[in-house]
């Protein structure tokens, strides 16, 4: 299985357009590597590619990946479709950019499919296939030698949804498998809690791409007591006794990589103490454009 990290930042990217914090200033000045919003491409045969989430930066991300270039016919594309972990704007606003692309399929839970922005408008250009995946259900085959299962992680709906179903499968992990080789990838860029189910998912893959939005719970400020959980917006922080990094110590044989980094995350500076600690723990943070080969 080939895995392309097209983008590795949280909503807003890095630097974020309206942020003049020291990290964003340094990125804007070219002194720290910038990151586009999280998006991954996977393939089993190098001919058919599937996107995991469709970021608003998709146009630039596709241009930067020769594997995803169109051809040989004038309108041929190796892109077969998009799998979504959730319906958040930073994971779905790339879909309208693909409008008019014939034969594309979008797969996600029915809750997420029902909330995709501009879905009806997209179908007016060229009807797509919208395939509902059941959390915990059977593996769904993807053209090109891969399969997917979806695993519910949370029920936090995007802000733009009116009166969302509180019990909906709003946030999931995607497990991409390659039956021919036994390779497996876990993609989970959003989770608010480390659960036994998530632990088992990480244990069962070669490589896990995980929510690295915030290094610490108070990264967005701690002015209001008790507001911590809300301020970290449903994202479990990396550090601290209950953070994701301590849970990841249980899985030394899995390749563990953080993605979906917020522009406030000190890890964005490779020279930071936090980055040194991460390396010592055997967990990675990779630049946009990195290709991984599994197993
Ligand atoms: C999130 O990751 O929590 C969402 O993308 C937040 C947002 O963009 O509103
Ligand atoms: Mn996000
Ligand atoms: Zn910033």
Please give a structural write-up.
Belongs to the PqqB family. It holds the Pfam family Lactamase_B_2. This is Coenzyme PQQ synthesis protein B. The protein is of the alpha/beta class and 295 residues long. The protein has a single domain, classed as Ribonuclease Z/Hydroxyacylglutathione hydrolase-like (Metallo-beta-lactamase, Chain A, 4-Layer Sandwich), CATH 3.60.15.10. Helix content is 18%, strand content 23%. It has nine helices and 14 strands. The strands form two sheets. It has a seven-stranded mixed beta sheet. It is globular and about 50 Å long. The N and C termini lie close together (7 Å). The model is unreliable at 223-231 (pLDDT under 50).
What is the fold-level CATH name, i.e. the topology?
Answer: Metallo-beta-lactamase, Chain A
Order of strands, widest sheet: 6-5-4-3-2-1-14
Number of helices: 9
Question: Globular, elongated, flat, extended or rod-shaped: what is the shape?
Answer: globular
The span between the termini is 7 Å
Can you summarize the main beta sheet? 7 strands, mixed
Estimate what percentage of residues fall within beta strands: 15-25%
Bound molecules: D-malate, manganese (II) ion, zinc ion
The total of beta strands comes to: 14
Helix content: 10-25%
What do the pLDDT scores average to? 95
Q: State the name of the first-level CATH class.
A: Alpha Beta
CATH superfamily: Ribonuclease Z/Hydroxyacylglutathione hydrolase-like
- Which blocks of ≥5 consecutive residues have pLDDT under 50? 223-231
SS class: alpha/beta
